[in-house]
């Protein structure tokens, strides 16, 4: 995967993420030992496009075959947590899935195909009740309907987010 450390305190990640929105809800995930919710996806493998990465990740995590996606957000994310500095470049795609896919029927927290993660559909009007990272996701999701072009965001966060 395209992740490297410059030294013990600095690293870079290239990530691809899915915005899966159905009936006013958006799919999120978190590590089992964390309270931070984030959009599903994963790190890009070397010589793999971000779109192919997302298709692979969604198949691995949910046994979900995806055919339709649109790049919405390009995000440069700078995170300083304690002594660590993380720079992430994230490509966020709006992903269409069939409304009758078994994934859509989950009401509470649920496990997917991949160990170590919990998933949940969260109502857009209840996003502020959850600890969602990165923070730009909440306002961006709330205005997603107005999106016609790709948005570029640069976000710098300095604080301790706890374990991911």
Radius of gyration: 15 Å
Please identify the structural class as seen in this structure: mainly beta
Q: Characterize the main sheet.
A: 9 strands, mixed
Number of strands: 11
Distance between the termini: 18 Å
Mean pLDDT: 90
* Tally of helical runs: 2
Task: Name the features.
single chain; mainly beta; nine-stranded mixed sheet; two-stranded parallel ribbon; 46% strand
Overview of the molecule:
- The model has no long low-confidence stretch (mean pLDDT 90).
- The strands form 2 sheets. Strands 1, 2, 3, 5, 6, 7, 8, 9 and 11 form a 9-stranded mixed sheet that branches.
- The protein is globular.
- The chain has 164 residues and is mainly β.
- A hairpin with a 5-residue loop joins β8 (110-111) and β9 (117-123).
- The chain is built from 2 helices and 11 strands; from the N terminus they run βββββαβββββαβ.
- It has helices at 50-62, 137-142, and strands spanning 3-7, 10-22, 25-31, 36-37, 41-43, 68-81, 84-96, 110-111, 117-123, 131-132, 151-158.
Q: Which helices and strands appear, and what pairs or packs with what?
A:
Layout: E1 3-7, E2 10-22, E3 25-31, E4 36-37, E5 41-43, H1 50-62, E6 68-81, E7 84-96, E8 110-111, E9 117-123, E10 131-132, H2 137-142, E11 151-158
Parallel strand pairs: 2-7, 4-10, 6-11
Antiparallel strand pairs: 1-2, 2-3, 2-5, 3-9, 6-7, 8-9
